[in-house]
Amino acid sequence: MKTEIIAVGTELLLGQIANTNARYLSEKLAEKGIDVYWHTVVGDNSERVAEAFRLALTRADLIILSGGLGPTADDLTKETVADVFGLVLEMDEAWEKELEHIFARLERKMTDNNYKQALIPRGARLLVNNHGTAPGIWLEHGGKIVVLLPGPPRELMPMFTEQVLQLLPERNGVILSRVLKIIGLGESAMEERIADLLANQTNPTIAPLAKHAEVHLRLTAKAATRGLAEVLLDATEFNLLQRLGEAVFARDEETMADKVASLLFKKMMTITVAESCTGGLLAHMLTNVSGSSAYFLQGQVVYSNRSKIELLGLQPELIEKYGAVSEEVARSMAENLRKRSASDLALAITGIAGPTGGNAEKPVGLVFIALAAAEGISCRKFNFIGNRETIKERAVMAALNMLRLYLAEING
Amino acid sequence: MKTEIIAVGTELLLGQIANTNARYLSEKLAEKGIDVYWHTVVGDNSERVAEAFRLALTRADLIILSGGLGPTADDLTKETVADVFGLVLEMDEAWEKELEHIFARLERKMTDNNYKQALIPRGARLLVNNHGTAPGIWLEHGGKIVVLLPGPPRELMPMFTEQVLQLLPERNGVILSRVLKIIGLGESAMEERIADLLANQTNPTIAPLAKHAEVHLRLTAKAATRGLAEVLLDATEFNLLQRLGEAVFARDEETMADKVASLLFKKMMTITVAESCTGGLLAHMLTNVSGSSAYFLQGQVVYSNRSKIELLGLQPELIEKYGAVSEEVARSMAENLRKRSASDLALAITGIAGPTGGNAEKPVGLVFIALAAAEGISCRKFNFIGNRETIKERAVMAALNMLRLYLAEING
Lengths: 412, 412
Prior knowledge:
Two copies of one chain form a homodimer. In chain A, strands 2-1-3-8-7-6 form a six-stranded mixed sheet, with helices on both faces. The first copy, chain A, has 16 helices and 17 strands. The model of chain A has no long low-confidence stretch (mean pLDDT about 90). The first copy, chain A, folds into three domains: about 1-165, Molybdenum Cofactor Biosythetic Enzyme, Chain A (3-Layer(aba) Sandwich), CATH 3.40.980; about 175-250, Alpha-Beta Plaits, CATH 3.30.70.2860; about 255-410, Maf protein, CATH 3.90.950. By secondary structure, the first copy, chain A, is of the alpha/beta class. In chain A, α11 runs parallel beside α16. β2 of chain A pairs antiparallel with β2 of chain B, so a sheet runs across the interface.
């Protein structure tokens, strides 16, 4: 069943709000195995609403329109749809009474344009609105299913899940998605390793999506049952893990911080962090996980050289000789912090987040990350690109990834 | 100039992300007085991209396509547009070199599919991507303007504002928006103070939008010129400021951190922070501003009681007597930190971010925030609602707001 979602609302075309209704409806339809092929947005203009609706009738089997059901003169979706189909609008007496009740309760006078909301096209089915005054409409006509929903998300969402989803025909089958999250491989390097799968595999499909500091692979399987879809996803995930190995750090909703937290819990190790250019973001990520006080002891945001010396006991000569952004300083930060805080592990970051502060030898984006453990210190050098926030984020993800790889390798 | 925005991406049709690019582009175009009549979303399917593009050519003068410019086999927007116009793709040698530079710098091997990104339709103009590898394209053909932008918002947004907006023709008449950001007043308390304006004012219109820790008021004015629209906005802003006073903390793109930073710069004061429940987020916000090393000296994430005692010199008896989440501990954290770090100001936060750790006497969301200055310490108690991340965010915003109000009041 090919589906088109048409949102009606000038506020969308003025960029005042994003079309979150289409996102929500699409997600719910995908879970039910119904394919959405088009999203369209038009303004509160009956001619363009009619044009969009007529086009949808030529290509889609299910057409969902949102917005334009309210009491004002701007609200004309219902009238337009009825007009295109040549259907008259009739008063729904039950909803008319309901509206009168609502207005009596609010102690507000009900005006003529409020009554207009209880009109529905002949032959249509009214969808009750438990969160507002405009009802929705379910209409089957000429082999098409047309659904009209109110625009406000808190009215549209419950109406769709509680009423529309039940009315939609059962498609044999479901569409199930799974996301694998990858770090430390560029999008193109990753694609080379799995080029044949990307090109040839159709169920599940595999779609890459580059994020700031990570790449997501979304697997989408269609199958008769949820169980079969899971089997298809498992098989492809197994294949991908063989190619991508430890670059895959998490699945679905799990974040890098969640992954690192679960490893720290499992290994029962404590950690402290010292940050220069990332300014607290690493500590923030590590403490976003509930229960993080079990492993996170303290963080130091050592922005000034003075604070590096006083709080971490760095040798002023070291900073003078190598510069605050150097492997030597990163190593010393991590090592000193670990000793002073008596934690199992210490992570230290020093770098240049920009936009100022860089030069030819040490450009913006240069970052050193050191991890100190009982058996020694490792340090990596990175050259990140992006603006200040992106560089901070990429540096923090790289630091968490170093921690993840370390924790995954040690025994115990 | 009628405009259509076509977003290409199956992830949009599956409801995995909302079409925030269309919102952003529409907002910027409205400011320039350019009418957007249609948003369309289609999947990564060359047939449907071509169909949507051909339809747009029949009704729009300016067509902006986003997404599908990357290196993978899925990325086919550029190829489809060139094909509809019958244009060949040619290698842009400058961008080819740029790509080679980027890959050399990242120490990554550049693969064949990366080179594909440097291909542009004959006669087109390349739009530089400062945040990624896929350039944008500006193409004038058959009386139409066609713009291709990369899908990731962090690449699309700067490319559009820095390059495309300058290339677009000037229009008669503009729609201009301004956002006033409000903190410390609930949405309904705010609405009560300005109810008459919300109900009656039509140019500019005033639309409230509640965010996690702040409320935004969006003013939208229509006028013949930018200057006239500004005058309308200024008059309404003046009216609103009289009603809302110091609760208005910033305008438009300015964030609370920007505001606080500019006050710290102006007063030439330095700050240090000590955080418990917010776990580094306060330091992260304060260091998100470029040049923050001028005022931000250091941050302490004192998660454990031990770190509070060792790093801040708190009396163990104080924690024992009042608990780590108490006014006494917050005050002592701020005072000790200010003395130890020799900063002008010190902000301290202690609280319960949840979801665990609360009880009847000290529930989740209880937060104490103390600000120490030369003339003394002030402390406020808050009861925030929300999940862990929301409570962290609200606590940080409240702390920054205390700092803002303090800085705004002192002389000098």
